[in-house]
Write a structure and sequence with these properties.
This protein is of the alpha/beta class. It has a single domain, classed as P-loop containing nucleotide triphosphate hydrolases (Rossmann fold, 3-Layer(aba) Sandwich). A seven-stranded mixed sheet has the order 1-7-6-2-5-4-3, covered by helices on one side. The longest helix has 14 residues.
Length: 155
């Protein structure tokens, strides 16, 4: 996502899914209304685990799963509504218009967009990018989490 060029960038290392969850939870606690977080990473890097922690950080108690087949899942009951997108199956960014993405991206809740790099042209310039990467040489559960954007130094 080239649009984050020049913004704050911080990298964090975690060594277990519970640490990825805890990292997401800290980000959720700090999230503000109107923020968009674009998650990127290969399959199995922990985007959904991060999202589950993020939701808990917002105070959401409902189970959070990847909304791959519905594209959008809305969670209420926390201090902010969570709009959880999974755009893995989106072939063209224009498909997002059909579900009225702007209402959510520019709404009063907070958005988490799994596979956000697939709709990069639609993301607000203020979107915070969260990249999750594996490095099997450092262990099966090792993840490097890079946060790019306004809240990079708050993870």
């Amino acid at each position: 996502m080239k649009r984050n060029h020049g913004q704050a960038r911080m990298a964090y290392e975690v060594h277990a899914p519970a640490e990825t969850f805890a990292f997401g939870k800290r980000m959720g606690v700090q999230a503000k209304a109107g923020q968009v977080f674009a998650l990127a990473g290969d399959l199995g890097t922990g985007k959904t685990v991060f999202s589950q922690g993020f939701a808990e950080g917002l105070g959401i108690r409902d189970p959070v799963n990847s909304p791959t087949f519905t594209i959008l899942q809305i969670y209420e009951g926390g201090r902010l509504e969570l709009y959880h997108f999974d755009v893995y199956r989106i072939a063209e960014a224009e498909e997002m218009e059909e579900i009225g993405y702007e209402e959510y991206f520019y709404g009063q809740g907070v958005c988490l967009v799994e596979w956000g790099d697939r709709i990069e042209t639609l993301l607000p310039d203020t979107a915070v990018k969260v990249v999750l990467e594996k490095d099997l040489e450092k262990g099966f559960s090792y993840r490097r989490i890079t946060v790019i954007g306004a809240d990079a130094d708050r993870g």
